[in-house]
Amino acid sequence: MAQATHQSSAATCELSLDNLMLTTEGRAVLSCIQCGTCAGTCPYGEVMDFPPRRIIGMLRAGLLEEVYTSDSLLSCVACYSCKAKCPRHIDLTGVLLPLVKEQVLTHRPEMPSELQKALENMHRYGNPMGESPRKRANWVKTAGVPVRVFSEDWRPADVLWIVECYTSYYPRGQDNTRATAKIFQALGVDFAILGNEEKCAGECGRLSWESGLFSTLMEYNMGVFAKYKFNRIVTSEPHAYDAFKHRYPAIGFNYQLEHTTPFLARHLGRLKPLLRKKLGYTVTYHDSCCLGRHNSFYEEPRALLGAIPGIKLVEMTHNRINTLCCGGGGGGMWLDTYYKTKGYERLSEKRVKEAAATGADVLAISCPYEVFRFEDAVKVLGYEKKMVVRDIVELLAEAMEV
Amino acid sequence: MNILVVLKMVPDVVEELEIAADGKALDAALLRMILNERDNHALEAALLLKEKHGGKVTVLGLEAPEMDDMLFTALAKGVDRAVKVTGMEPGLSTRAAAACLAAVIQQAGMWPADLVLTGVQAIDDLDGLAAPLLAQRLGAPYAGIVTRIEPNSTGTAATVVKEYPSGVHGEFEITLPAVLGIQAAEKPPRYVPVAKVRAAMKSQKIENVAAPAAEAGPVLVEVLRLEKPQPTTHAEMLEGSPEDLAGKLCEILAGRGLL
Amino acid sequence: MKGNLWVLAEQWRGQLSEITFELMALGRELAEQLGVPFEAVLFGHNAKELAGQLGVADKVLYVDHALLKEPSPETYAQALEQLVKAKQPGAVLVPLTNVMMDVAALAPARLGAAFVNWCKGALVSEGKLQASAVLYGGKIEALVRVEAEPAVLGILPGVRPAEKGRKEKAVPVEEAGVTLETPRVRLNKYVEPEAGDVDITQQEVLVSVGRGIQTQNNIELAQELAEALGGAVSGSRPVIDQGWLPQSRQVGKSGASVKPKLYLALGISGAPEHVEGMKNAALIVAINTDPHAPIFNVAHYGAAMDMFDLLPRLTEEIKKRQVSRVT
Question: C5-175, what's its fold?
Answer without folding.
Answer: Rossmann fold (3.40.50)
